[in-house]
Amino acid sequence: MNEFILLLLFCHVASPVLHALRYFSTASSGVPNFPEFVVVGLVDDVQMVHYDSNTQRAEAKQGWMEKVTADDPRYWEKETQVSQRDQETYKDRISTLKKRFNQTGGVHTYQRMYGCEWDDETGVTNGFYQFGYDGEDFIAFDLRTKTWIAPTPQAVITKHEWDRDADQNERWKNYLTQECIDWLKKYLDYGRSSLLRTELPSVSLLQKTPSSPVTCHASGFYPNKIMLFWTRDGEELLEDVDHGEILHNHDGTFQKSIDLDVSSVKAEDWGRYSCVFLLSGSRLVDLLVDTFLVDQNLIGRLFAVLILSGVTVCLQNTPPCFHNFGLAQPTGGDRQVGRYVLN
Q1: Using only C-alpha atoms, what is the Rg of the chain?
Q2: Distance CA 159, CA 130 (A)
């Protein structure tokens, strides 16, 4: 729960070919049983460093982060010092902003997110640096102009002050476009066996009743840079679909669902609909699950097409295929239209 609150303000969506290094800092006041200051660092959404005002030190959250001292023996000492300094600075900023917003007591938060992205196919990079107050955007750095954007009147004073510090803004640009990228590549190399691994999903089609949506559910995949969508006649459906969020599994993999509203789908048209799963990483997987329902029990024929490195395998749920490829009959709960496990 201590780490969840850090992600409430910022929602950043990465494309399938991007790697990202992000740091989230949160200072809070009036929050019981929660550290007044917390910092987390994430590589490709995997937390690798943590600091809070209770422990007063930066700590590794992944075993592979211990390799960092080979490149910088004082890494953890410097991370701790920077976080301790920010802890005092952010505490003062909450006091300042409470006055600007004419606030007294209550719960208040001051948050920062900064980091960079790197496309390992094209080499394109990007950097970002922004602040929030009480769950709303407060001020953000414009990397192109090296100036600050103030979306609220209370941030204008801060904008003018920070815009005048041209040298500091130049240093931030250099960090976000160069140093941050270098560290991102180092972290990816340290955690290569974990961060750059590929795990393939199991995909199920589920429906509660004949009139309820059909859910395409993929689980057990890694990394989380995937696309899951419904198609009709090979074209992606943008209407009558409901995208679920990508969620964590307890084993470090991910799951995602997408619902298809079937209220307007005729039985004879089911062969036109497909659920497509795309996984990007060291290899590209396209999983196409296509089903049409032949009776009210919704247990029809299942076709799964796996396109992997140019090889296509087509499976149909005759008894031998159930035995050989792990296609499972539904068991209780939602009616399972079909299931395919990649391994």
Answers
A1: 24
A2: 12
- pLDDT per residue over 285-318, tens digit each? 444 444 433 233 333 333 333 333 332 332 233 2
Higher confidence at residue 133 or residue 265? 133
Bond into 223 cis (ω within 30): yes
Using DSSP, state whether 171 is helix, strand or coil. Answer: helix
Q: Which amino acid is at 108?
A: H
CB 208 within 8 A of CB 202: no
Fold of 202-341: Immunoglobulin-like (2.60.40)
Q: Which of 104-108, 173-177, 190-194, 309-313 has the highest mean pLDDT?
A: 173-177
Residue of higher predicted confidence among 32 and 38: 38
> Count of alpha carbons within 13 Å of 151, Cβ hemisphere only?
11
Give residue 90's pLDDT band: very low, low, confident or very high (50, 70, 90).
very high
Rounded distance between C-alpha atoms, residue 135 and residue 57, angstroms: 26
The domain spans of the chain are 4-195, 202-341
Instruction: Could you please state the CATH topology (level 3) that the domain comprising 4-195 is classified under.
Output: 3.30.500
For residue 166, which of 157, 174, 154 has the smallest C-alpha distance?
Answer: 174
Task: Give yes or no for a contact between 222 and 199, defined as CB atoms under 8 angstroms apart.
Answer: yes
pLDDT of residue 269: 82
